[in-house]
Fold this sequence. Notes:
The chain is of the alpha/beta class. It is about 40% helix and about 20% strand. It has six helices and five strands. A hairpin with a 4-residue loop joins strand 4 and strand 5. It starts with a helix and ends with a helix.
Amino acid sequence: MLNYIVEQLTKKKKTISTMESCTGGALANEITNVEGASDIFKFSAVTYSNRFKIKMGVSKDVIDKYSVYSMEAACEMSYNISKFTNSNYGVGITGKFGNAYKENLYGDNYTVFISIYDKDNNKFYNDTVKAVKQNRKENKMLVIKKVNDMLLKII
């Protein structure tokens, strides 16, 4: 699915990094499944816990105020992963696939928040996905498809 994205990033000499939570590195996996991805893919962090989101630069104040399941948290993730790796694009993904985590009891159970930060233009592109599929793997693929569609418009 991400072949064209990798091809375009390579052609434009742009790079991308990801900070994922509920997708557990599925986006990074899909990117690295594409031949030549090592030219454009710098780094991925799977930050399942609040503690590691904070270690990677997500503001504790943002998490406390808006919840980790929010667009504000996704924006912090995309910005900070781009900054940490000096990538042209940072992707932040956070949300729930229908279950609550004991540290984060509030937030819609079926909404995933996606933020793509474009460092060169200092701009965020944000969207959400409803996790409506029967299992986690299918929901992860829904999110990846949405990221692919967003990147097609951005790059």
